[in-house]
Write a structure and sequence with these properties.
644 residues; alpha+beta; elongated
């Protein structure tokens, strides 16, 4: 009997809360797909950085499990509140709270099993997509293969069991304490606001905005002055930011009443009274939940935007570090013969060039450009070498005018240079004017300059002493990490007695492998967390509104009887939902952009303003695409519940 009742209730819940079931299925499918990626030997063999992928996914999964458990518990509590009269009737009929707890357990087992089975099927498909994306990033051939990972399945099963076990245990404790009267008359009880006094709202509102400002100020300070960065200060800044966010949303209901409903002109204009009274009442009684959702949405946006920023950073920094297929810098060119012979035999050489990096004997430009790198000298190259380097890399050719020099720098250095009206440079008694500044990747991480290089006319360059020589190569076949290891071993055999000091070595294959591994390890993990966060927050907003639709259907029925047309009611519903879905993202959007600006600071400003805003817009676009889908589903369900 108990089993049949649990099965019937589970079916009804699946139908009434299909959006919730869909979100849990998405969460389980992502868990399974990412666990398969973590345990895949094929993927882990793609690069050295991939060894840390399992640890990163495991760490993110702990956060995801915690958020999903919160969603499941919130929804279980929400559904039990909606079924309070039914559960109270069971108690009146003599069914003990222990049996009711068992009934709830069976229902959760049925729903959890259904979500898990669907999640395994969808997760297997998602794994194929992730596998294809990862191999495309590494430029490895991909083929569809049916795979099943027992380790990934068992770990996902453990996550699901923990999620439902914690939720059911908490619900069981609550059912043991609840009284029959409270269950029977739960729907007639008025919801209470967190803060009831007007003065309390004003005080809390002021303190909340102060906490937000202090949190933002704290984060801005430590990310702009890295020497101040320490875990305690970072935690304090984040804690102030979250506390301020919660405080603002706790007092938001009273603020809405104050702004929109205090003045009679605004209150009685159109349908304002109906919309804002419903909204303010909901904001007052759901303030803590709305605060939690706002925090999740802020984390979602921060994760997605940061993932995009990190992806751009790793890709750009790899090219800045090693723009050519292979490169080696030394104070003596005698060692280059054996290196050229190796790459000619193994990869084939299209073109090679030995570039003399010259010491200007001063650091005038270094100080003018506000540099803070380990290189404290101005380095230069001859224009003829620069022209050949641009040709090797396929860059647009440039001509150097007489009496001028060219500055080739990292984007952030070029930005500083562009703010200077004039940058004359005197070398060996000759003063040159800056002709232009370029910021394409040119291996300026110590191989050809440090952050920037000065391009001088050939006749001026001949008079400067040589600091070191850099050999760059464009190979027929792509270089690999093995080529880099060869260079390291070869360098290890070069002794200081030969006076052939090697300054740096690298291959594009190794740089790109590290970059791709970092993109997958960090970028994919942030996207993973972001998707779970937004689905969780949007699900709660959707379920709350669909529940309100059936509960307050009589209100719209009264409006219809008063002569309000169906089209007008549809517009009324749309406005109400736009406000309800819009308010929780009101603060998270600017706060997430602020957090992304802080993240940009620790990325050494390799990210240009254009790259930054492109990443922000991509993150916002992805976020609002998912958010709008949930909004559209809510509007369709709400309208159908009211008008059908």
């Amino acid at each position: 009997m108990l089993g049949k009742l649990a099965l019937r209730n589970a079916r009804r819940s699946m139908r009434d809360y299909s959006v919730y079931l869909l979100t849990v299925t998405i969460a389980f499918s992502l868990m399974y797909a990412f666990n398969m990626v973590a345990f895949s030997k094929d993927i882990r063999s793609l690069g050295m950085m991939m060894d840390g992928l399992s640890m990163m996914i495991g760490f993110i999964s702990i956060i995801v499990v915690g958020v999903t458990e919160w969603l499941v518990h919130y929804m279980n509590r929400f559904m039990l509140e909606k079924r309070s009269k039914e559960l109270g009737t069971y108690m009146l009929l003599g069914i003990s709270s222990r049996k009711i707890s068992r009934l709830v357990l069976f229902e959760n087992v049925i729903m959890g099993a259904a979500a898990l089975l669907a999640g395994l099927v969808v997760g297997s498909f998602l794994y194929q997509i992730l596998n294809m994306m990862i191999k495309n990033i590494f430029e490895v051939k991909y083929s569809v293969q049916t795979e099943f990972s027992l380790q990934a399945f068992l770990l996902t099963l453990l996550y699901v069991v923990l999620i439902y076990a914690f939720s059911v245990l908490r619900m069981r404790r609550r059912l043991k304490k609840v009284k029959i009267y409270d269950l029977i008359y739960a729907e007639k009880q008025n919801e209470t606001a967190v803060i009831s006094k007007k003065k309390g709202h004003l005080v809390w509102s002021g303190l909340s905005f102060l906490a937000l400002l202090l949190g933002c100020g704290c984060l801005y300070t430590i990310f702009n002055w890295i020497e101040l960065l320490n875990p305690l200060l970072l935690i304090a800044g984040l804690a102030l930011l979250i506390a301020g966010l919660y405080g603002v949303y706790i007092t938001l209901g009273a603020m809405l009443v104050k702004v929109f409903l205090d003045k009679k002109e605004r209150k009685y204009t159109g349908d304002n009274l109906f919309i804002y009274r419903n909204l303010s009442a909901k904001m007052k009684t759901m303030s803590v939940t709305i605060g939690t959702l706002a925090m999740l949405l802020m984390l979602t946006l921060a994760c997605i935007q940061s993932a995009s920023l990190f992806n751009t950073f790793f890709e750009r920094s790899a090219l800045n570090r090693c723009t050519f297929d292979a490169q080696i810098s030394s104070r003596d060119d005698e060692i280059f013969g054996e290196v050229l012979e190796y790459f000619q035999k193994t990869r084939g050489i299209k073109e090679s060039l030995q570039v003399s990096v010259l010491n200007c004997g001063q650091k005038t430009l270094y100080h003018t450009l506000e540099q803070d790198s380990y290189g404290v000298e101005d380095y230069a190259i001859a224009y003829s070498d620069y022209a050949r380097l641009r040709k090797m890399l396929g860059y647009e050719p440039v001509k150097l005018k007489k009496g001028h020099y060219i500055l080739h720098a990292y984007p952030q250095v070029k930005t500083v240079a562009d703010t200077k009206k004039s940058l004359p440079y005197t070398v060996n008694g000759v003063t040159l004017e800056r002709q232009a500044a370029y910021d394409e990747p040119l291996s300026q991480g110590g191989t050809i300059g440090v952050g920037y290089i000065i391009v001088l006319p050939d006749e001026t360059a001949r008079e400067l002493p040589q600091a070191y020589i850099t050999l760059v190569m464009d190979t027929k076949a792509e270089t690999t990490t093995e080529d880099y290891e060869y260079l390291l071993n070869y360098v290890g055999n070069v002794t200081s007695a030969d006076l052939r000091e090697v300054l740096s070595t690298d291959t594009k294959g190794r740089a790109l492998d590290n970059s791709r591994g970092s993109i997958i390890m960090l970028g994919f993990s942030l996207y993973y967390a972001g998707l779970i966060f937004i689905c969780t927050a949007a699900t709660i907003l959707t379920v709350q509104q669909l529940s309100e639709a059936s509960k307050h259907r009589s209100r719209y029925s009264i409006l219809s009887k008063l002569g309000v047309t169906e089209r007008k009611i549809s517009r009324l519903i749309l406005r109400q939902l736009v406000l309800y879905f819009g308010i929780p993202v009101l603060l998270p959007v600017p706060l997430s952009i602020f957090i992304s600006l802080c993240v940009r600071k620790i990325l050494m400003d390799i990210i240009t303003p254009m790259m930054f805003w492109k990443s922000i817009l991509m993150g916002l676009g992805m976020f609002f695409l998912i958010y709008v889908l949930y909004f559209a589903a809510t509007y369709a369900g709400y309208r159908r519940s009211i008008l059908d």
